[in-house]
Amino acid sequence: MTKHIDKKTFHCGICGIGFERTRTLCNNIKVHMPEKPYECDVCGKCFSKLSRHTYHKRIHMKEKPFKCDVCKKKFTTAYDFKVHIRIHTGEKPYKCDVCDKCFSTSSQYKLHARKHTGEKPHKCEVCFKSFSAPGNLIVHMRMHTGEKPYKCDVCEKCFTLSTKLKIHIRTHTHEKPYLCEDCGKCFITISKHNIHMRSHTGDKPYKCDVCRKSFITASHRKVHMRIHTGEKPYKCDVCEMSFSHSLGIKLHTKTHLKKS
């Protein structure tokens, strides 16, 4: 009589099922384990990999073992350090096949690619508006929640974005870091600097589709369009007279103040 040999020599210590290969046994053990078994004992956040748990712990310990020799900036992970170095080297290894634009990180490239595909996988559950990046959805959600997590230490005004707080701080410090090399005028934001530069170059990129008149800013074109649409969104609370421009309502309000 031929003796039957059990090939399933690797048995799971939890459920007792046998497997022929150690690899299959390991996959089975993962079924019994929690999805994110590595928990941070400081904040309770869980991770699927030990390496990610280790990197996370450095945030609490404020440990940054990777130092840039050029600018001396320090980083928690080798990956963050590697990406940072590309600022100094100018390396942009991720190239868009559609427009040939290059990026320093794969995440930047993926977000850019969605501009061509129109993909917006991150949807707001309140108003169903979709976004290409998760960060944009987080910022959008603050419209619904009213959350403004960035607070000014000087006047306690709060903002939805860290960039808006940074710009606001300049109103206290009077910092205007963007200099016009043509006339020496300085600006608080790069956008205001760029708009100002158009007064020197004569560039008017915003064109009216009705009369083809061009404008320096999108807001100027928006106000102009009201000539064609007849829209007058600024209404007087006293006499209910309407105006197409905010300046019009301000001047009109003064006529009521003079009468009183």
From TrEMBL:
Listed GO CC annotations: chromatin; PcG protein complex; transcription regulator complex
Principal location class: nucleus
Family: Belongs to the krueppel C2H2-type zinc-finger protein family.
Limits of the C2H2-type domain: 10-37, 38-65, 66-93, 94-121, 122-149, 150-177, 178-205, 206-233, 234-260
Pfam families xrefs: zf-C2H2
Compartmental location: Nucleus
GO biological process, one term: negative regulation of transcription by RNA polymerase II
Name of the molecule in the record: C2H2-type domain-containing protein
Keywords: DNA-binding, Isopeptide bond, Metal-binding, Nucleus, Repeat, Transcription, Transcription regulation, Ubl conjugation, Zinc, Zinc-finger
PANTHER family reported for this sequence: TRANSCRIPTIONAL REPRESSOR PROTEIN YY, ZINC FINGER PROTEIN 143
Gene3D superfamilies reported for this sequence: Classic Zinc Finger
SMART domains according to UniProt: ZnF_C2H2
Annotated GO MF terms: DNA-binding transcription factor activity, RNA polymerase II-specific; RNA polymerase II cis-regulatory region sequence-specific DNA binding; zinc ion binding
